[in-house]
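Internal tracking record. Fields below are filled automatically when a chain is submitted to the structure queue. Please do not edit lines marked as system-generated. If the sequence contains nonstandard residues, flag them in the REMARKS field before resubmitting.
Queue: standard
Priority: normal
Entity type: single polypeptide chain
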Amino acid sequence: MTARSATTESVEGVVLRKHPYSESSLIVTVLSADAGQMRFMVRGALRLGRRHFPDLDLLRLVRVQYRESTRTELQTASGVETLRSFPGLTAATRRYQGATWLAQLALGNTVEHAPATQLVQALLAGLARLEQWPAERPLDGLAITLAVAFVALAEHGVLPELAAGSAAAQAQERMLLAGLDESHPLPTYDLPQWLALGQWVAGQMQRAGMVFPPHWARLAGEAVHG
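SYSTEM-GENERATED OUTPUT FOLLOWS
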């Protein structure tokens, strides 16, 4: 969501990338539902002090206030507010790996000035699911990430048109619903079925010129090699 006033603008989005700039500043890439990818210079983001501790981090939903520059795509932030964080992502390596895979998916399949309404919604739902991913359900990582990938395919208009009411159409709809709504149940497939579906999604993305990040199957951990 974006808002505009006479002097400043604000945008809400998910932080997907950050790079240090000087000793105290960051350049961050934020994915907004309305504006696609946006890059910001955040001065002082790394500064430490008695009254200041860095709050800007990857995989958080933030609101950035800035003055729009017409000379460069790099905007200078005047304020950053964290709206939602996902602290549980760092509680287990597999959760963070799943989250970074989703960040790569989003970065590879969005551009500046192109809305990504459904993908941002799916990204937030996927991060919320990954934050609660239980160790006793290793295949959930495959399900969560593929559900978001299905939404990316749908938003790019490259999901195949299937006969209404067919088993394939119903399965596709279940994946899309699971991708967009964290309260919707994930499909329950076995490992060979998830791996086959992952290969299919990767093929669809490759043919459409999209990006399917590497090492996706590793999210299942030992289940892949057992």
